[in-house]
Task: inverse folding
């Protein structure tokens, strides 16, 4: 019995140690120098520090150990036409050579190092034609057959999908002003975040314009086409804020699991001074649900609306953490709006929904350890009694022999 109580209280102590820690660790971000994409302006806008990585350094393995997150923008390779030197006399061309600045790394080597980086539990975002490295590394895309998989000049219609719908549902049309951008029919696995219809030599066809694939290592590979990067609002905010702090969904999952619930949905964002309130859509399941929230800094008003946009709960002066139990007759969506009550900005905002009844924290773990402790204590008691009685039996036999 003594062993049971010792095991039980040790379990409670370990559970207390394992409580979810929401302290914010900002990832080390690297951006490969490129010719086209302006990722840095978005990171500056959202207050995220980063380093620039030279293309020539991509084949150095030690570079990858410095970062948690690397952007592979469109156009990281050296342009050949800017690296050519032509030797001519009068009207005759006598020679064509590459200048000293020209440098080219094999695609397979870039892909292999990218694969090792992601399989070590880290994250990459490839935009534009850097998709070829993504496909080489992970066999990422389903490509159209008998088709160059390149788009043409013209308008494209872009629609959010998947986890991106938690932040925006706004579709938009954008003009692609050049030919040759990446076109793919679908993904081998993973989640589509953006869909588009683009002009091609075969007419308008559907393509994946944004996606993510999570691997068992904990690493994630994202793709964003030029179609997505043209939107300077929610889509680029997602790819420069939400993807950087997506690891906080794992912390949310630990909290939800601790209550014996299942993580249904989540949203990660940053509270910025130029925001006039923010809204997130989250999925909930039938009957019992809990909405969890975490705020790195600031004080907020939190409003919860049902799928019909009817206000079902509101709370002022919310700081640090937030929890609210919600019951629904069917699977549905809720909308969570937040407004800053106090002038503190730049902090991480995290929401998640957990489905199922809540009893006490770590109830299933406590129950399982308690059952095992009882079984173990019972087994120890039986073994002790057997030894005790076997000792008495041995004494009796010894007495009979002496007699």
Result:
């Amino acid at each position: 019995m003594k062993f049971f109580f010792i095991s039980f209280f040790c379990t409670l102590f370990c559970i207390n140690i394992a409580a979810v820690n929401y302290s914010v660790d900002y990832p080390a971000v690297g951006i490969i120098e490129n010719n086209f994409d302006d990722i840095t302006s978005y990171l500056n806008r959202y207050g995220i520090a980063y380093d620039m990585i030279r293309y020539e350094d991509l084949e150095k393995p030690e570079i990858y150990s410095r970062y948690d997150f690397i952007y592979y923008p469109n156009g990281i390779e050296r342009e050949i036409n800017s690296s050519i030197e032509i030797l001519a006399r009068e009207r005759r061309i006598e020679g064509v050579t590459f200048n000293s600045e020209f440098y080219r790394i094999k695609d397979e080597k870039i892909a292999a190092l990218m694969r090792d980086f992601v399989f070590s539990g880290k994250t990459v975002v490839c935009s534009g034609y850097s998709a070829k490295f993504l496909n080489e590394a992970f066999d990422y895309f389903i490509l159209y057959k008998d088709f160059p998989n390149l788009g043409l000049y013209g308008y494209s219609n872009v629609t959010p999908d998947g986890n991106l719908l938690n932040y925006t549902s706004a579709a938009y049309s954008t003009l692609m002003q050049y030919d040759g951008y990446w076109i793919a029919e679908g993904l081998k696995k993973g989640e589509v975040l953006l869909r588009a219809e683009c002009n091609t030599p075969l007419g308008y066809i559907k393509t994946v314009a944004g996606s993510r694939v999570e691997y068992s290592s904990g690493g994630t590979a994202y793709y964003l086409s030029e179609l997505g990067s043209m939107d300077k609002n929610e889509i680029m905010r997602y790819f420069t804020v939400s993807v950087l702090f997506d690891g906080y969904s794992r912390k949310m999952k630990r909290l939800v699991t601790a209550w014996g619930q299942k993580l249904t949905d989540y949203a990660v964002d940053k509270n910025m001074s130029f925001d006039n309130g923010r809204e997130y859509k989250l999925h909930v399941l039938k009957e019992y649900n809990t909405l969890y929230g975490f705020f790195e800094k600031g004080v907020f008003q939190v409003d919860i609306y049902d799928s019909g946009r009817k206000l079902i709960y509101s709370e002022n002066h919310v700081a640090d953490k937030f929890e609210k139990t919600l019951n629904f007759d069917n699977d549905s969506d809720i909308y969570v709006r937040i407004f800053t009550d106090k002038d503190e900005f730049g902090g991480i905002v995290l929401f998640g929904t957990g489905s199922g009844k809540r009893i006490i924290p770590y109830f299933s773990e406590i129950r399982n350890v308690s059952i095992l402790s009882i079984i173990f204590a019972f087994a120890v008691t039986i073994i002790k009694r057997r030894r005790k009685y076997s000792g008495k039996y041995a004494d009796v036999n010894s007495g009979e022999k002496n007699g």
In short: The chain is about 30% helix and 35% strand.
